[in-house]
Each structure stands twice: as C-alpha cells, then as structure tokens.
Amino acid sequence: MKRQILIVEDDPIMRLGMEHLLSSHGYSVTLCANGAEGLAAVEKAGFDLIITDLRLPHCSGLDVLRKAKTVSPQAGVIIITAYAEVKNSVEAMKEGAFDYIAKPFSNEEFLISVERFFNFRKLEDEVLYLRETLRELVEFENIIGSSPLMKDVFDRITAVADTDVPVLIRGESGTGKE
C-alpha cells in the first residue's frame, strides 16, 4: 500500500516539484495550494505524512500542523519555509512537527527527511508490537494452556489485574490457583 502524503504549498513550482519527486519514489501525493485547502484535506483524508509551508495564504503551516495533530495524531508533519527562524522552528517542534526544513533544500535533503519519518514510524510500530507480544508472554508465563477457554481466563485476568476489586479464584487442589 502506498504511503499517503499531503503537500500544502502556495508556490506552484515548488509544489509540483515535490509532487514529482515523491511520486517517482512510490508515494501517493495530494496537493493543496493554500492553508484553507490544507485544513480541509487534513479533516477529510487520513494522511501518513503532511508537508506544509510555514507561510501560506488563509492560514499558517502551524495551523495545519495543529489540525493534523488533533485529527490524526499519528500523522507526521514536516514544516518547510523560506523564512527559517529559530523561534519558528522551536514552536513547530513543540507543536509536534517531525522536522523543519529551510528553503531552498536539495531533493536529497528533502527525501532523507521524508524517509526518516517513515523509518521512525516503522520502528515505533515495531516497538509497540514487541511490547504487546512481550506483555502477553510475560504476563502468563507460569500458566499453561492455549485452548479458547484458557484464553478467556487470560482475558479476564487482564481485565481485573490493575484494579482493586476482590477476586475469588476457585478450583480443585493442585490446579495452580496461586
């Protein structure tokens, strides 16, 4: 499945150049020419990555960033700008931007930032999967059983394990109630 990228950029040459570069590397790209279009697109579709200019007609790239983090917190946002200032980059990173790139940038620099985001997302997904797998393995390491009934018991144990509710465990002597 192709990664979905939204580009919000008011300069048509820059917008089409980024689209061509990303499309040629296998990404599915949607374009918006101003901040209002960008906000509407963020609300409608689930993008994996949003690349937005900082200064846009109708609203700023920071507005697009905030909307993206509200609507789709897992989506990455890369801010690009010709007016690179430390103050703006710090604010963008505090708001949740993945990267902040000053124009003009090379195609290589741009692609590295995009690929770095997707590698980061892949690693984050792997960590979540491994934590869940490890939790399942460690939680019930002393209990033997893989039948549907035992899985139901494991689910019930998990549901009440973090509560202060008293639980009565019944069973025959020697069945491992401890």
Secondary structure layout:
Elements: E1 4-8, H1 12-24, E2 28-32, H2 35-44, E3 49-53, H3 61-71, E4 76-81, H4 86-95, E5 99-102, H5 107-139, H6 148-161
Parallel strand pairs: 1-2, 1-3, 3-4, 4-5
Helix pairs in contact: 2-3
Explain this structure.
The protein is elongated, with a radius of gyration of 24 Å. The relative contact order is 0.10. The chain is an alpha/beta fold and 178 residues long. The chain is built from six helices and five strands; from the N terminus they run βαβαβαβαβαα. It has a single domain (4-128), classed as Rossmann fold. It has helices at 12-24, 35-44, 61-71, 86-95, 107-139, 148-161; strands at 4-8, 28-32, 49-53, 76-81, 99-102.
Quick tags:
178 residues, alpha/beta, Rossmann fold, 5-stranded parallel sheet, 51% helix, elongated
The residue fraction in helices comes out at 40-55%
Class derived from helix and strand content: alpha/beta
The coarse silhouette is elongated
**What do we call the CATH topology?**
Rossmann fold
Total number of distinct structural domains: 1
Number of strands: 5
Provide the CATH top-level class: Alpha Beta
Distance between the termini: 47 Å
Number of helices: 6
